[in-house]
Specification:
Layout: H1 10-24, H2 42-61, H3 81-96, E1 106-107, E2 114-115, H4 117-138, H5 147-160, H6 162-165, H7 182-189
Antiparallel strand pairs: 1-2
Helix pairs in contact: 1-3, 1-4, 2-3, 2-4, 4-5, 5-7
Length: 198
């Protein structure tokens, strides 16, 4: 699989690395497995994640959006999964490479559709990282979502997630549990059970 363009945004590079690792670890038959995203297979989660990355790129560049609705993925992979993921991540990485760190109004597909640079890139990274976790746990891989990355993503999650829960983008937050690390805390905030199994 190819490598994403350097972004100058470490959080996005780390999230892309997590998604790249998860996708690379999926065997062919495992693209039909159930995932923590209810009613979606691993193939559908990949299509959704790729579509979201392209959506972030399109918001910044004004270029074309995803080929299909990321919220109604077909689950049919007609292209190599690694290439699907890599093409999408290259697009978002290249777009964010043009964004100044102090920009106060970066266009995004996430309401309110314009965010300060750190939140905009955090939203894009959050999407890639959490879907990397979805794909990894659905296919029996070690989680590529590190405590360091989860800790860095939590401030963005606390700003952007609640306003979009009603649309089904994220489930209701789960109660915190004693002994949760940063990964578990982030996953529970996003409505995911950190101990989910297929």
């Amino acid at each position: 699989m190819g490598q994403s363009t350097a972004t100058r945004w470490e959080i996005l590079d780390a999230a892309h690395a997590a998604l790249r690792t998860a996708v690379a670890g999926v065997a062919g038959p495992d693209w039909d497995r159930a995932t923590p995203c209810e009613h979606w297979t691993t193939a559908q989660v990949l299509q959704h994640a790729a579509g979201d990355q392209i959506g972030f790129a399109a918001a910044i560049t004004g270029g074309p959006g995803p080929d299909e609705d990321p919220f109604a993925p077909s689950g049919t992979l007609t292209t190599d999964p690694a290439e699907i993921a890599d093409r999408a991540m290259r697009a978002s990485a290249a777009a964010f490479a043009t964004v100044a760190r102090n920009a106060d109004a970066v266009p995004t597909p996430v309401p309110p559709h314009s965010l300060p640079a750190d939140l905009a890139v955090g939203a894009c990274a959050l999407d890639a990282a959490v879907h990397a976790w979805d794909i990894a746990v659905a296919t029996g891989q070690t989680s590529p979502l590190s405590p360091e990355l989860a800790r860095a993503l939590m401030p963005t999650a606390r700003v952007i997630v609640d306003p979009v829960r009603a649309w089904g983008a994220y489930a209701t937050a789960l109660p915190e549990a004693e002994g949760d690390d940063d990964v578990a805390a982030l996953l529970r905030y996003l409505g995911r059970d950190p101990h989910w199994t297929a």
